[in-house]
Amino acid sequence: MTAETSQTLDRGLRVLKLLADTDHGLTVTELSHKLGVNRTVVYRLLATLEQHALVRRDLGGRARVGLGVLGLGRQVHPLVREAAMPALRALAEDIGATAHLTLVDGAEALAVAVVEPTWTDYHVAYRAGFRHPLERGAAGKAILSARQQPQPQPTGEAEGEPGYTLTHGELEAGACGAAAPLLGVTGVEGSVGVVMLSEVVPERVGARVMEAAREVAEALR
Asked: Shortest CA distance to 141 belongs to which of 113, 115, 104?
């Protein structure tokens, strides 16, 4: 800590990060041990965070992230979209297909940024805000494939080489998609991909989508 920083705020932010990293919540005692402070300090931190709905405590006394973080999270999408746009533009122009950045929103995949190629005679109309189940489409399946991996290495689904996922006609008849997950970005779960009107995805598309996903991940770190 330096003279310009707040120890209390620092501890409160550390509490939020610790709670965000667990699915089952943490007790006051567990937080006390992880923070290296006494239980009284933890009680005060939790009480303050609860007043702002950033933390909630269940009937068993375990603290969890509160719904108040959703209000803060609404401002994340524009920042993520801005960071991803250069890589998406390059991908769309290179492949000649509609490129997209998709993030998880509950049980759905949400397209938060879309770039269409400028030089093609026709391409798939795919708009930001489009939603679909994670279990359908290359974008969602790429995200699910990353969840199943114990190591932060790119891995693919059936039909694709390791690192990306291919689908055919799952979201739109006659269209196919390729997507690769974002890896190594704390707090962001998503994928980068393309969708095109084609029976077969050209061989080079998978590697190019993986490259774009790495570029977006680097921009978000």
From this structure: 104
Do the beta carbons of residue 181 and residue 191 sit within 8 Å? yes
Per-residue pLDDT of the chain (221 residues; tens, 9 = 90+): 566 779 999 999 999 999 988 888 999 999 999 999 999 999 999 999 999 999 999 988 999 999 888 777 667 788 888 999 999 999 999 999 999 999 998 889 999 999 999 999 888 888 888 999 999 999 999 999 998 875 444 433 434 445 899 999 998 888 999 999 999 887 789 999 999 998 888 989 999 999 999 999 999 98
For residue 26, give the DSSP letter. Answer: B
What is the rounded distance in angstroms from the CA atom of residue 143 to the CA atom of residue 103? 9
User: And the tokens for 16?
Assistant: 């939020």
Q: How many helices (H) and strands (E) does the chain have?
A: 7, 8
User: Between vectors from CA 109 to CA 217 and to CA 177, what angle results, nearest 5°?
Assistant: 80
Tokens of 124: 């798939």
Question: Which residue type sits at 41?
Answer: V
- Asked whether 190 and 146 are in contact (CB, 8 A), the reply is no
Whole-angstrom CA distances from 204 to 27, 58, 94, 114, 178 are 50, 50, 11, 21, 11
In a 10 Å sphere around its CB, with 0-12 CB exposed, 13-18 middle and 19+ buried, how is residue 96 labelled? middle
Give me the phi and psi of 95, to 5 degrees please: -90, -25
The radius of gyration computed from the CA coordinates of the chain, to the nearest angstrom, equals 21
